[in-house]
Amino acid sequence: MTTKVLAIDDSRTIRNLLRMSLENAGFEFHTAVDGVDGVARFAEVQPDVVITDINMPNMDGYGVIETLRSGPRKTSVPILVLTTESSDDLKTRARDAGATGWIVKPFDDASLVSVLRRLTGNAA
Amino acid sequence: MSGAPSIRDMFFEECEELLEALVEGLAGLEASGPDAAESLDTVNAVFRAVHSIKGGAGAFGLDALVDFAHTFETVLDKVRSGSLTADADLMRLFHRSGDQLANLVEAARDDVPANAEAAGAVLSELQKYLGDEDAEEDFVFEAMGLDLGESASVLTPDTFEISFVPKRALYENGHEPLLLFDALAELGTLEVTADTTGIPAFDGFDPTDAYLGWTLRLTTTESETLLHEIFEFVEALCTLDITKSSAAAPAPEPPGLIDLPDLGGLPDLTELPDTSALPDPDPIAAEAPAASAGKTHEKEVRGPKPTLRVDLDRVDRLINTVGELIINQAMISQRIEELDLPSVAHVTNELEAYKLLARDIQEGVMAIRAQPVKPLFQRMSRIVREASDATGKTARIVTQGDSTEVDKTVIERLADPMTHMVRNAVDHGLEAPDARIAAGKDPCGTIRLSAAHRSGSVFIEISDDGAGLNRERILATAIAKNLVPADAELTESEIDNLLFLPGFSTANAVSNLSGRGVGMDVVKNAVQALGGRVSISSQTGKGSTFSIVLPLTLAVLDGFVISVADQTMVIPIASILETVRPQARDLHRIGIDDQVISIRGNYVPVVDVAANLGIRRSGPAPCGILLLVATDPRGMSALRVDAIHDQRQVVIKSLESNYGRIPGVSAATILGDGKIALILDPEELVNLNMGAQPSAGLPPPVQKELRHVDGT
């Protein structure tokens, strides 16, 4: 089965870049434009892995992670944070919220694809 | 990153939007004041705009842009966190930073070197707001993955024993022990042993619980710190024990910067231990069938206003087709009329419905191309700031009617002329602050932009509250440049409009700011090319106003179908103030050929359209019908035509691209009977008429320009 990736980012450019990389690599790619959209899309798409931005309108990335990791429908799919920040503070916050990993923008296609494949245990 | 050009283009498109959001946010912040409750949201929006530009710029390796955006963002973040207050000075700096950011985006887009000096100046001002701690934390983009090069020094390898027992929460947060092992294997030689003793009997087995533990033996030259960094994200979610076999004391854990490890070139996953105890990767996914599997679709419909991005070519093709539809509809109407059916015939009713529908479709399609003038106005606020910086004046910009919608092409082609007019308004219009104080005015000048729809046209005004035009100097310049004879007697508005003469702009009259070799005649030509007209009015001591009148769309116009010397033509209704069927006694002869008509006590020159187009010799003609048209600033002329047949929308077909430019004619159209009709340009006809007056005796450029005749 094709691996489904949900990317939550308010930047169209980043979404486009991710789409290009990941669709080329054979992932089924879905996007959401902000945190609230992301949570809604998550339920809809049921992705195998989530990539989320931190700085977003409506709900930030921490909010997304906390929401997805809590409640009766909490998920255990890997959630990667994709952001330009790399400060320990922010990283700790993301980790405490339940993030699986951290990717600093700009990302490198090959490593991202490789990480996603391994995270999802899928050669897709 | 080797982004395809199209994605790069999309990035710059997005930048435009983000810059607009930035300008809007800053304006909002200024309007509400730093203490307003909503200002935090606005700062957030501004921050995000800058942040998104930075993120995208990083992806394309646009370092100058990234650096600037980063510093800008850091200062914004301080405002966001409350450690800095956005006072007037800081707001000004933010505006300038926004301008520089736009410059850098532009430079990056066009792949030209940016004005590093200007950016550097703003950058260093921004940096003044940053404390030392911010400055130290210099911004670097890290590629994802471990930076193995730096910390790998020439050390003898150590062997580490790692005991790793994940807790349930580790899996719940989407972690995958395999990944960690992969990352460790990158560092050296790794042996992994799984401890499966924790797995309970099958009936006690909880598939979501964690039962496995691992013992890893890693031989590496890397430091223990790095090992901890690999486990950074899971350390709280497992029992982890790392010991150096050589029994050295474990180093304290320093903060790490290592992110998700790069996992390229690793042993096949099948060689790694069994992971059957991993929980179901996605309990939610298991609950519902994956309905959308195999189908990718992006949903971009959040936010207040869902939008659809469409290739402009497609819209233009559609507009063209709709144009054909309108012509076709007119033809059908004509054919049916020719059948002379009783007026109650069904086909007549259906035809009426068809006409309405066609018109709706047309309006709908035109609306696709319509865009608010807001971005254009926002760009002008930047011009005002740049111009006032360059001239040492202070100016604020006030806009009105931002949401007025105008055809996209019109907006695009208006940008340059407007820039020029706005620069002019600041440079020549506004006085220096001390002169303003001396005149009892606010030292800060005001540039006002307004846009409005009025009777099928778009009115745009650019006004300043400066000293007004210096008519003596304008006239002197025009005389000195031989544009008007020394003894010319011109009204005030005629003098004002001399500014639009080609060749008027001089080094003397133009400072290095608004200079750039462009005169107001270029502005005028640009506006006229859009089917519009521009004029200037001025009040001494109170300021000047440029007025631009433009058609709503470039594709169709409402016109009168008229006949002139047996030729069928179309004249835009928008330019017609009034139609008059004159009696012979209303017309008065002046000289041999010229006539005037008395309209409510004013004498209005009569322009014989046929004679001016060279279709008929001038001379006494039947009274015909007079179409009164406005000639700026407040004059009128009467165009004489033979008859008005119809009022309808016509599709504009360019003559220039197919045939050539004809004075007095702006374009052509196809009528219902399939015949081609010329679309007249009333203003040019009036100018032609003025030019034909032998008594005027002015050199050609002025003859073309002096069309203000109000007969009083």
UniProtKB/TrEMBL annotation, chain A:
Signal peptide extent: none
Asked if Phosphoprotein is a keyword of the record, the answer is: yes
Q: Which GO terms describe its biological process?
A: phosphorelay signal transduction system
Checking Pfam families in the record gives: Response_reg
Task: Check the record and name the PROSITE patterns matching this protein.
Answer: RESPONSE_REGULATORY (PS50110)
The reply on keyword Coiled coil is no
Spell out the SMART domains in the cross-references.
REC
Q: Which UniProt keywords apply?
A: Phosphoprotein
Q: Domain Response regulatory, which positions?
A: 4-120
Report which superkingdom the organism of origin falls in: Bacteria
Residues where 4-aspartylphosphate is found: D53
Q: What is this protein called?
A: Response regulator
From TrEMBL, chain B:
UniProt keyword list: ATP-binding, Chemotaxis, Kinase, Nucleotide-binding, Phosphoprotein, Transferase, Two-component regulatory system
Is DNA-binding found in the keyword set? no
Enzymatic reactions: ATP + protein L-histidine = ADP + protein N-phospho-L-histidine
Q: E.C. number, please?
A: 2.7.13.3
Q: Does the entry feature the keyword rRNA-binding, yes or no?
A: no
Q: Where is this region: Disordered?
A: 248-303, 691-712
* All residue ranges annotated as the HPt domain in the record: 1-108
Q: Where are the transmembrane segments?
A: none
Q: Which residue windows does the record flag with biased composition (Low complexity)? A: 256-293
Q: Which superkingdom does the taxonomy of this entry point to?
A: Bacteria
User: Which terms in the Gene Ontology molecular function aspect does this entry carry?
Assistant: ATP binding; phosphorelay sensor kinase activity
Chain positions found as Phosphohistidine: H51
Q: Where is the Histidine kinase domain?
A: 296-554
Gene Ontology biological-process entries: chemotaxis
Where does the CheW-like domain lie? Answer: 556-691
Kind of enzyme, top EC level? transferase
Write out the function statement from the record.
Involved in the transmission of sensory signals from the chemoreceptors to the flagellar motors. CheA is autophosphorylated; it can transfer its phosphate group to either CheB or CheY.
Q: Can you name this protein?
A: Chemotaxis protein CheA
Species name = Thalassococcus profundi
